[in-house]
Amino acid sequence: MSINQKIKKQPEYDITKLPADISAIQTQxxxxxxxxxxxxxxxxxxxxxxxxxxxxxxxxDELTEDILFKLVEYDGYLNLKDFVLRILSNRxxxxxxxxxxxQKKGFSQSLISKVIDEFRExxxxxxxxxxxxxxxxxxxxxxxxxxKIRAALLKKRISPSIIDEYLDTSDDAAIVAKIKExxxxxxxxxxxxxxxxxxxxxxxxxxxxxxxxxxxxxxCLDELADITNT
Length: 230
Fold this sequence. Notes:
By secondary structure, the chain is an alpha+beta fold. The protein has 13 helices and four strands. A hairpin with a 6-residue loop joins strand 1 and strand 2. Helix 6 packs across helix 8. The N terminus is likely disordered.
């Protein structure tokens, strides 16, 4: 692939002027983390100051297409790191979520993989921690049942072994307790239906939609009806 092809997504750079000596480098007034590069005293393009420092580029140096590509590439690397840090500052993310969001922003697969690997190494990205928090938040007040939680995590391409570490789908007693707790907190909602049979059907439909195992719902349906009678 030619240098022209590599930087074709950067139309603001007039590569027909290259190679050429850099006549000036000025820190941008509105964004001091970026600098403007001039050739023959004319603005050529803006880059992150950190990228210029990384490549030891200064006034008087020759700017070639190859160096320009390295600048653009390192700018993209820093931009992606900033992007990932911003989304992680809001909440934990699964790797697949980060990859998908970064792809939508136009970052390359290879660059995304590189940054994800670095963030995993530094523990900024930790899927075990993500699963632990996800399970806790969805189980809080019986929002989701274990089946719905597991399906959502698998859709996010979380390893089943990590899911199993933090989501117990085999403890029937604990699951039934969660179901009863949820119905108890929402009994006014269910008790609006005076017909017991219809109420049971309503609860069954609602709880299966929440992702609770159908067999366990059926096993305690009479008890749930009693709870809504109190």
